[in-house]
Amino acid sequence: MQSSNNTKIEFDYGGKHYVLEYTAASVKRMERNGVKLSKLDEMFFSAPEILFEGAFYANHPNTEKRLIREIYKSLKKTADDEDPEYDEDGNEVDSLKEILGVMIREAVEEWSNRSGNSSWKVTR
Predict the structure, then answer these.
(1) Distance of CA 84 to CAs 39, 58, 107, 109, Å?
(2) Is 9's pLDDT higher than 90?
(3) Are 2 and 25 in contact (CB under 8 A)?
(4) Residue 114 confidence (pLDDT)
(5) Does residue 16 contact residue 48 with C-beta atoms inside 8 Å?
(6) Can you give the pLDDT at residue 1?
(7) Model's pTM, two decimal places?
(8) Among 1, 59, 79, 86, which is most buried by a count of CB atoms within 10 Å?
(9) Where does 3-118 show beta strands of DSSP type E?
(10) Residue 92 CB coordination number (10 Å)
C-alpha cells in the first residue's frame, strides 16, 4: 500500500479495514476512467460517489463498484471523532463529502507543487 501524509478516511466494513486516500496514481486512474475533476462541481448528485470510488483506488483498487456504493450508503454523515454540524434548516451537514473534497485537493496540490533539486534549461 502506498501512503502519504495527506488526509485519509479509515473504517471497518464487513470485517475488513479500509484506508481511503488519493495518490497521484489514483487520481490519474480516475482521469483515465473519464472523471473530469474540473467538472465535478457541476455534478451535484454524482460527484460524491465518484470521489468516494476514486478514494479506493490507492489501497483497495479491486473493490467492486457494488460494494463501494453499499459502503458509501452505510457511512454516517459525520466521522466518529467529530461533532456533527447542521445547516440553517437543522439538517446534518454531510462532512464525508467535504472531506473527500479536501482529500482530492491535497492530492492535486501535492502533485502540482514540485520542489525538486534538478536544474533544467530551455534550448531553441
Answers:
(1) 28, 28, 25, 28
(2) yes
(3) yes
(4) 67
(5) no
(6) 44
(7) 0.83
(8) 59
(9) 9-13, 16-20
(10) 12
